[in-house]
Every structure is written in structure tokens, then in C-alpha cells.
Amino acid sequence: MNPTQSVFLVGLPGSGKSTVGRQLARRLGLPFVDSDHVIEQRIGSSIRAFFDREGEAAFRDLEAQVIDEVTAGPLAVIATGGGAVLRPENRVHLHERGRVVYLRSTPEDLFRRLRHDRHRPLLQVADPLARLKDLHAQRHPLYAETAHFAIDTGRPSVATLVNMILMQL
Ligand code: S3P
């Protein structure tokens, strides 16, 4: 395949954006970029530490700047942070500058995958499943609006998910 557009992956934390994105990039012969990783390189610390130090609003400002830059950059497969769709300008940039794939997962599946995760600041709460349900309710419409199509991540292997995406690009 000879891609003419970048591919942006959106979805809740734990939906597989980085894992699927890496394999998809290999299949398309494109570089893989993780926008959270770009942010961490820029701030020189983990996102969790930055959240604790500066708060969520400062993180969202930085995230918007990085999303603007990477979506306007060279062709790539780009995994975005789960909250990247919260800012309207990010939604526009993502939708207009490439093909956007929503990796759709249920809160229960995400909970199973993330139970032991200590890196995601928004899930460091007493009841992470309830938090994931809230995030899903709030963000599902934003992911759906931003994406050109959605893929259900429930059962298929990563390789199958990649094939499903390749068929719809
Ligand atoms: C966030 C998701 C994280 C990261 C930050 C905020 C969110 O990315 O950007 O912790 O608001 O859902 P992942 O989706 O890769 O976990």
C-alpha cells in the first residue's frame, strides 16, 4: 500500500492505540509517532508527574500544541492520548489532516487491561471502573465525531485489528 494520508488513532486509555498503531505503521511503511511520548520528551518527565505538578489544564495546552504540530507534520501513523478529542481545535485538526480511526472498547474491557496500570493519572482513583464508565460516556460521542470510522477492539487479535483498519483506510 502507498498511503497518501496520515492515520490518527483515537480512543480511551487502554484501547490499544500504541500497540495497534505500531503494527499498522509497519504494514503501511510509515513512521509511528505516539503524541504522549512527544509530550514527555518535551517536558522531560512523565505525564503523570507533569499532571501532579502543573495540573490537567497545563497538560491540555501542551497536548493541543503537540497535536497541531504532529498532525501537520510528515506522513505517519499517530497514536493520540485518550483526552486529545476534548479540545474542539484538536478534533478539527485530526479530522481534516488525515484518516482518523476510533478504537472502540467497552469500559469493562479497558478495566481488565488497565487494572494494574500506575501510569495513567486519570485512573489513579478509588473506583477506576466507574471512572472509565464516566470517561466513556463523556468521550464516546467526541471520538465518533472525530473519526472517519470505528473498529471494535473487544475480541480480535492486534493483527486482525490492523487488517480490519487496512481494509477501511
Ligand atoms: C489521558 C490519556 C493518556 C494521557 C494522559 C491523559 C486521558 O493517554 O494522554 O494521561 O485524558 O485519557 P493514553 O490514552 O495513551 O493512556
Automatic annotation (TrEMBL):
Sequence positions that bind Mg(2+): 18
Domain of life the protein comes from: Bacteria
Enzyme Commission number(s) from the entry: 2.7.1.71
Subcellular location: Cytoplasm
Residues annotated to bind ATP: 14-19, 120
GO BP: any one term: aromatic amino acid family biosynthetic process
SUPFAM superfamilies cross-referenced by the UniProt entry: P-loop containing nucleoside triphosphate hydrolases
Free-text remark on how the cofactor is bound: Binds 1 Mg(2+) ion per subunit.
Residues that, per the record, bind substrate: 36, 60, 82, 139
Any single Gene Ontology cellular-component annotation: cytosol
Enzyme's top EC category: transferase
Cofactor(s) listed: Mg(2+)
Keywords: Amino-acid biosynthesis, Aromatic amino acid biosynthesis, ATP-binding, Cytoplasm, Kinase, Magnesium, Metal-binding, Nucleotide-binding, Transferase
Main location: cytoplasm
Record function comment: Catalyzes the specific phosphorylation of the 3-hydroxyl group of shikimic acid using ATP as a cosubstrate.
Subunit structure and binding partners: Monomer.
Protein name: Shikimate kinase
Organism of derivation: Hydrogenophaga borbori
GN (gene name): aroK
